[in-house]
Amino acid sequence: MMKDKKKSIKKTVIWLVLAVLAILSTIIIFTLPDRTNYTQIKATIGNLSTYYTFAGSVETKNRQTIFGDKIIRINKINVSEGQKVSPSTILMTTDSGDEIKSNISGEISSIYVSENIQIMPGEKLIDIIDYSNLQLKVLVDEYDLSAISTKKDAIVTIHSLKKDINSKITYVSKEGQYQNGVTNFSAIIPLPIDKDLRVGMSAEAKVLNQSISDVVILPMSAIQFDDMNNPYVLKKSNKNLPLDTQITLGMNDGVSAQITSGILADEIILVPPAPKLNNFANGRPINQEVERPPQEIHGGTLINE
After folding, report:
1. What is the CATH number of the domain that holds 274?
2. d(CA 106, CA 128)
3. Contact by Cβ (8 Å): 189, 226
4. Distance between CA 173 and CA 122 in Å, rounded?
5. Would you give the DSSP letter of residue 70?
6. Per-residue confidence at 52, pLDDT binned at 50, 70, 90?
7. Whole-angstrom distance, CA of residue 113 vs CA of residue 263
8. Based on the domain organization, do 138 and 80 belong to the same domain?
9. Are residues 220 and 297 in the same domain?
10. For 27-41, 71-85, 192-206, which range has the lowest pLDDT when averaged over its residues?
11. What is the average pLDDT across 41-67?
12. Helix, strand or coil for residue 136?
């Protein structure tokens, strides 16, 4: 009877020891950081700029559409589409001997009439477009109007040409157009002569908002937020372990952020691995890490160990 009791106690002790070891193993696994999975980024000194952007399209500064001002019959058309003309060029003549000319220099875009056809008053005759004086016209929300002014620098991006052009704002309208609850104003930015530019091309104007220099910056991807939405980072401690460090954020450009307190330049920040996404293939879940390529890191120095 005593032997059975001793065996029972011994088994109980063994199971208790195993249970304690299992609990300790679980605690160790879930509390020790996986050092090999951290990306190390060094805080750096750099510059940040933010911009306002305004969308628009390329248009010509000068264009003219000539209309018939009375009943006439076109005797002769002296020009063709695509031909360059000046105010001295006789475009058409009428049966009565009148000469029709342009008020601007440009290129014949469209001819709407034919010879020996009678034209009624107000009928469209011809379009002339000056392609040597192109400009970008953008719409500016009334709430962003304070961001623009004449002579202010602007960077124009022509999307289809993948080209940036440096220019200046030359005109801001004093009268806006009210639509869908918001009033928009127009701004004009001249464009240089470029054989690839076409009227109607979509474009975007970028105007400087704020700019700061020689500040501590980190990529936004290195910054985390707690349950109270307070920013913090995992700073590398002397024991190479992550140390939760509260920081204060300044300006950011959507990619990098200014750090006004909490860390200094050259301090190493540990970035945990991206969360895994569960995908399913052939009915089985597959864990895939979201890629975070090093070349996409801005505002910090990637450290490879």
Report:
1. 2.40.420.20
2. 6
3. no
4. 30
5. S
6. very high
7. 74
8. no
9. yes
10. 27-41
11. 94
12. strand
- Kindly write down the DSSP assignment for every residue of 204-223, as one continuous string: EEEEEEEEEEEEEEEEGGG-
pTM, to two decimals? 0.63
Q: Pick the residue with more confidence: 26 or 294?
A: 26
Confidence (pLDDT) at 294: 37
Same domain, 244 and 298: yes
* Domain extent at residue 272: 35-49+213-303
Question: In the predicted model, what is the mean pLDDT of residues 198-227?
Answer: 94
Residue 287 has pLDDT above 70, yes or no: no
Q: Taking a C-beta distance cutoff of 8 angstroms, is the pair 149, 169 a contact?
A: yes
The amino acid occupying position 266 is D
> Domain check: are 112 and 142 in the same one?
no
Is residue 148 within 8 Å of 176, Cβ to Cβ? no
Closest CA to 131 of 87, 195, 38: 195
In the structure encoding, which two tokens stand for residue 22, read together?
Answer: 């299992």
In whole angstroms, what is the distance from residue 203 CA to residue 199 CA? 11
Token pair for 50: 């933010």
